[in-house]
Amino acid sequence: MLRALVMLQNGALEGRRVLLLGDDDSVSIAIGLLGRSLGHDDLTRGVVVADVDDRFLSFISAAAKKEQIRIDTVHHDLRDPLPDALTDSFDTIETDPPYTFEGARLFLARGREALSLEGSGVCFFSFAQWPAPQMLELQELFVAFGWAIRNVWPNFNRYAGATVLGNAGQLIELHRGKVVASDLPTWSGPLYTADVNPRSRAYICAECGAQLVLGQNRTPDTIEALKAVGCPVCSGRAFHRQAGRG
Ligand SMILES: C[S@@+](CC[C@H](N)C(=O)[O-])C[C@H]1O[C@@H](n2cnc3c(N)ncnc32)[C@H](O)[C@@H]1O
User: Fold this and answer.
1) Residue 243 has pLDDT above 70, yes or no
2) Which of 2, 149, 164, 242 could form a disulfide with 202 if both were Cys (CB 3.0 to 4.6 A apart)?
3) pLDDT single digits (tens) 173-205
4) Tens of pLDDT along 43-58?
């Protein structure tokens, strides 16, 4: 809701066509509820969510139906270029990409494809608080994509328990300074934090202390699957991420 309010305050919602690239934080619902609380039938000129995960899309659609707010959802893997219907069609992008350089690059590239070539173009970009050398690389990426940084809110997004990624992330407001051609083909390289940082794949069983690495030695690929089958040593179902590995 705070993210939606900041977007409203900075002119990124009213009368704008808004695309959310991934929306597990349900910012689309916050935008809809905000518009309704301000007495608008349609504060924006349309809110679209593109996400690869049908669970989030179903949740958002069901909530939108219940609250009688208009949100369009599109199943799309952002590793692939945007479909024509989403290309060159939006004024505002909102995204919380994977907190890796590759994730930032991919989601920024798709955001650029989605923006209408006319008008200014704004992107609300949530990201981890990286140390200065990596922040410099991220800022070089913004420049390469033609974005100027308008505002940075440190520690704006707070995630209880997200110790590997950092509990708090920054919100960055980007404005398009110039149109840069976009032609990132399908991306098949590493993308997510776990692809890039193996430490986030190592877990300790809370019951017996067994060390388990997702995807290795017949340990399932995801923590959800590991919890479902239980620890191979003691069948316990609680796990902590292993600190300091990798
Ligand atoms: C990228 S995740 C947030 C990740 C978090 N910042 C991190 O580094 O772990 C935010 C949203 O993007 C969606 N998402 C992730 N990968 C995607 C992809 N390849 N295409 C479309 N949406 C994707 C997720 O389903 C989720 O709703």
Assistant:
1) no
2) 242
3) 999 999 888 778 999 888 887 777 665 678 889
4) 999 999 999 999 999 9
The pairing of beta strand 92-95 with beta strand 122-128? parallel
Q: Name the residue type at position 27.
A: V
8 A C-beta contact, residue 167 and residue 158: yes
In this structure, what token pair is assigned to residue 191?
Answer: 């993308």
Residue 54 main-chain phi, psi, to 5 deg: -65, -25
What distance in angstroms lies between residue 172's CA and the mean position of ligand 1's atoms? 17
In testing the pocket of ligand 1, which one of 3, 25, 53 has its CB within 8 Å of the most ligand atoms?
53
How far apart (Å, rounded) are the C-alpha atoms in residues 8 and 43? 10
Ligand 1 pocket at CB < 6 A: 22-24, 51-53, 56, 77-79, 96-99, 165, 193
Q: Tell which wins on pLDDT, 167 or 90.
A: 90
Domains and CATH numbers, the chain: 2-176 (3.40.50.150), 197-241 (2.20.28)
- Transcribe 84-111 into DSSP letters: GGGTT-BSEEEE---SSHHHHHHHHHHH
Give Dmax (Cα) for the chain.
60
* Mutate which of 3, 23, 24, 82 for ligand 1 pocket (most atoms within 8 A of beta carbon): 24
Helices (H), the chain: 2-9, 27-37, 54-67, 101-114, 132-144, 193-196, 223-229
